[in-house]
Amino acid sequence: MTVQAADGRLHHLDGRNLPDSISLYSGVSYRGAHLAEVLLNPKDAKASPILPTDGWISKRDVYFLLLGFFIFRVSAVLAEEIALALM
Hints:
By secondary structure, the chain is α+β, with helices and mostly antiparallel strands. It has one helix at residues 59-85, and strands at 2-4, 10-12, 46-48. Strands 1-2-3 form a 3-stranded antiparallel sheet, with no helix packed on it. The mean pLDDT is 75.
């Protein structure tokens, strides 16, 4: 069984570590709120990150940072070209 925690870590439970029961509570769906939640003690389960990191910044963070700079630069160039064309 694999359970993803709220912070994004994956907990893999197998064999003797499987819980005796699982309780899922659901209610009226609210925008942005959870519908079901599985709670366990993360100290008792092996955890692994979704994307492995080598240090304080992950590959995903670098990708989004570069993508953001690229989109910002393209937007700035397009805005300048439009401003010059409207003169």
